[in-house]
């Protein structure tokens, strides 16, 4: 249970709030490359940490991130024309380059003005299908990070973005919480429901996810790392060959995590749009094989159009979330929903836009959630005493990945991690 003050500190991300200022020290995804599919395509209005921006791709393919409202008199640049190397405001025709340089000021003959003035523009890096920006203090811009997902061939990577009407911490805590996997996602993970649910996991996933059901109260080994923390969830798995299944999950500040599957891994960023909305970017990457985006979207429950509109999860209590009570009664569907992403979004939004954590009752299985909050609050404290937040200057994060393996004795997972050259606990 948190105090109201702690809950506010953790969940409020706007300018001037402690978490908002902390988050602004890092780079964030603001769009996918697919949202700006070609030079001079339609611009995008995108909100990040409670501020509005226009994101556009110029004639040469370069991406710019500017404040949404025009430097002249505040019309939305997201209504603008993207043409001939810049974006032009449709109100009085001022035109801006990706770096904020004013290219044309049609209603002003004074040419010195155009040289003196610049639109607020933010650094951009486009990599591996994501458009990243940095909106924090200029003098404090950290290095850009390379992640494990950047290392796989482009053809072996798929990604999508989904917006949810809930605070980022609800989404991130859901992603940290391993003990819901065998219950909420029973359609995918629980023997008996696997066949009944309409949405069956890809066959290679079944083995792994059904372990989640075999031992519902895994032992959690949680350790701090230079980027945040990781936890190993160790389950006893019965059957003809009793064994220990160990799943290592790294979580990195300010909003990332990596989940390992047998031959691919998923990296998720739960990026705050504002206090009540989150843009989750999910990237699947495989060292060995090509992946199928349509199949992935179907498995996640994202192809059901009434649940998703314009990248956004829109189901709510107006229609009882369209929960399929009939299928639940007939034992054809555990949750009444289809697919992991859909189930997670239903749960996160059902708590209201910002869950009041003064009302919760935590148990031992929630230890990773407690650590997640602690690491976020640690970052706030570090900033207060003039230190850098956790992991800010880590440039090479390619060894920040997890694993999912069976070991005869679950305690050997650290040896396995070091043999694989993975990140390790922070001893400092
Ligand atoms: S408000 Fe944009 S040009 Fe005047
Ligand atoms: Fe989930």
Describe this structure in words.
The protein is of the alpha+beta class. The protein folds into 2 domains: 27-140, Rieske [2Fe-2S] iron-sulphur domain (Rieske Iron-sulfur Protein); 146-419, Naphthalene 1,2-dioxygenase Alpha Subunit, Chain A, domain 1. Helix content is 24%, strand content 27%. It has helices at residues 4-11, 18-23, 111-116, 168-176, 181-184, 186-189, 193-196, 203-214, 293-299, 325-329, 340-350, 367-384, 413-419; strands at residues 28-32, 44-48, 51-57, 63-67, 81-83, 86-88, 95-96, 102-104, 121-122, 124-127, 130-133, 146-147, 157-164, 219-225, 228-237, 243-252, 256-260, 265-274, 277-285, 308-309, 312-313, 396-397, 403-407. β6 (86-88) and β7 form a beta hairpin. The longest helix is centred in the last third of the chain and has 18 residues, at 367-384. The radius of gyration is 23 Å and the shape is globular. The relative contact order is 0.16. FE2/S2 (inorganic) cluster is lined by residues 70, 72-75, 89, 91-94. The site of fe (ii) ion has 6 residues, from α11.
């Amino acid at each position: 249970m948190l105090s109201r003050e702690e809950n506010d500190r953790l969940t409020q991300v706007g300018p001037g709030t402690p978490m908002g200022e902390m988050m602004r020290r890092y780079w964030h995804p603001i769009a996918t490359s697919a949202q700006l599919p070609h030079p001079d395509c339609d611009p995008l209005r995108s909100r990040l940490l409670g501020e509005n921006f226009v994101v556009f791709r110029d004639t040469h393919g370069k991406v710019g991130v500017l404040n949404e409202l025009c430097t002249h008199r505040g019309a939305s640049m997201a209504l603008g024309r993207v043409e001939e190397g810049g974006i032009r405001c449709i109100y009085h025709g001022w035109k801006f380059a990706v770096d904020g340089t004013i290219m044309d000021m049609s209603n002003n003959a004074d040419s010195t003005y155009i040289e003196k003035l610049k639109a607020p523009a933010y650094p951009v890096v486009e990599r591996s299908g994501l458009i990243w920006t940095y909106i924090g203090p200029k003098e404090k811009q950290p290095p850009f990070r390379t992640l494990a997902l950047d290392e796989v061939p482009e053809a072996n990577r798929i990604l999508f973005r989904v917006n949810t009407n809930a605070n980022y911490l609800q989404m991130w805590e859901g992603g940290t919480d391993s003990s819901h996997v065998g219950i909420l996602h029973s359609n995918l993970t629980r023997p008996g429901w696997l066949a009944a649910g309409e949405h069956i996991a890809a066959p290679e996933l079944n083995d792994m996810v059904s372990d989640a059901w075999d031992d519902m109260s895994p032992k959690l080994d949680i350790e701090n790392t230079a980027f945040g923390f990781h936890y190993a969830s160790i389950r006893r798995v019965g059957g003809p060959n009793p064994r220990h299944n160990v799943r290592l999950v790294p979580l990195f500040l300010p909003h990332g995590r990596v989940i390992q599957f047998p031959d691919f891994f998923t990296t998720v960023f739960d990026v705050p749009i504002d206090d009540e909305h989150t843009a989750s970017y999910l990237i699947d990457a495989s060292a060995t094989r090509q992946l199928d985006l349509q199949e992935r979207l179907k498995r996640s429950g994202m192809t059901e159009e009434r649940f998703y509109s314009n990248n956004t999860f829109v189901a709510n209590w107006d229609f009882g979330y369209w929960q399929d009570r009939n299928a639940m009664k007939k034992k054809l569907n555990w949750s009444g929903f289809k697919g992991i992403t859909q189930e997670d979004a239903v749960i996160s939004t059902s708590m209201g836009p910002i869950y009041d954590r003064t009302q919760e009752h935590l148990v031992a299985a929630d230890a990773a959630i407690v650590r997640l909050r602690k690491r976020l609050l640690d970052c706030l404290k570090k900033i207060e005493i003039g230190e850098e937040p956790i992991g800010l200057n880590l440039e090479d994060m390619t060894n920040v990945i997890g694993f999912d393996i069976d070991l005869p004795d679950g305690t050997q997972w650290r040896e396995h991690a070091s043999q694989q050259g993975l990140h390790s606990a922070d001893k400092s």
